[in-house]
Design goal:
Mean pLDDT: 91
Distance between the termini: 11 Å
Strand content: 5-15%
Largest sheet: 2 strands, antiparallel
Strand order of the largest sheet: 1-2
Shape: elongated
Number of strands: 4
Radius of gyration: 15 Å
Order of helices and strands: EEEE
Low-confidence stretches: none
Structural class: little secondary structure
Length: 87
């Protein structure tokens, strides 16, 4: 059975330039909706004022979340509740 309260984050993911974050899931109370990952965003600008660093995950070189609006998946869901169990 699906546990809607389960919350996890993967421990591995792609390492290419701008790669998205590890897969994550959790209840709507933790993630009310998800947006998209902008892999082309340049976040490594320590010289900028104020400085901007890639800090979403260890080893990140580019990219960022764009959670300005919910983004629906193929089934019309904008949340990640119940997505943790995929065995």
């Amino acid at each position: 059975a699906v546990d809607p309260d389960m919350s996890i984050t993967a421990v591995t993911h792609a390492k290419w330039y701008g790669a998205p974050v590890p897969l994550f899931c959790g209840p709507k109370t933790e993630y009310s909706f998800t947006g998209t990952w902008d892999h082309s965003y340049e976040c490594n600008k320590p010289w900028a004022d104020p400085p901007e660093l890639c800090e979403v995950y260890e080893g990140q070189k580019a990219g960022r979340y764009d959670n300005s609006v919910p983004y629906a998946n193929a089934n019309g869901r904008t949340d990640v509740e119940g997505c943790c169990w995929w065995g």
